[in-house]
């Protein structure tokens, strides 16, 4: 019967559509997996690029030091910094000494004033 044939064709078409949809869903799942892999690869690439940039910056810094005729090596630089720190410590010690001297002067004046007050009250 024609109705039976129409139903069978419709069933075949639905089976084909279901098969196609299954393929599409598998492709979507595969695409998700591939995108995850791509994201991981991109993150690793970014990490490698950041590391490479640091290496290039250090190499550039080293090249500048090598070409700098005034640079006398790290030991000389360290010695200069130690000299500067020593000078700063000297200045700080002078400031502390001056502060103590002024505090002593203030205390001496206060003590003198107390003695005068006691003599005046006696």
UniProtKB/TrEMBL annotation:
Chief site of localization: nucleus
Leader sequence segment: none
InterPro entries assigned: DASH_Duo1 (IPR013960)
GO cellular component, one term: DASH complex
Region (Disordered): 99-122
Keywords: Cell cycle, Cell division, Centromere, Chromosome, Chromosome partition, Coiled coil, Cytoplasm, Cytoskeleton, Kinetochore, Microtubule, Mitosis, Nucleus
Superkingdom assignment: Eukaryota
Annotated GO biological process: cell division; chromosome segregation; mitotic cell cycle
Family recorded in the similarity comment: Belongs to the DASH complex DUO1 family.
Protein name as annotated: DASH complex subunit DUO1
Species of the source: Babjeviella inositovora NRRL Y-12698
Higher taxonomy: Eukaryota, Fungi, Dikarya, Ascomycota, Saccharomycotina
């Amino acid at each position: 019967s024609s109705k039976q044939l129409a139903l069978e064709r419709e069933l075949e078409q639905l089976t084909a559509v279901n098969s196609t949809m299954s393929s599409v869903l598998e492709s979507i799942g595969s695409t998700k997996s591939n995108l995850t892999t791509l994201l991981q690869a991109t993150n690793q690439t970014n990490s490698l690029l950041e590391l490479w940039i640091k290496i290039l910056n250090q190499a550039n810094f080293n090249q500048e030091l090598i070409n700098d005729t005034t640079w006398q090596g790290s030991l000389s630089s360290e010695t200069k910094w130690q000299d500067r720190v020593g000078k700063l410590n000297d200045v700080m010690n002078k400031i502390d000494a001056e502060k103590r001297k002024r505090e002593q002067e203030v205390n001496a004046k206060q003590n003198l004033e107390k003695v005068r007050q006691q003599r005046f009250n006696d």
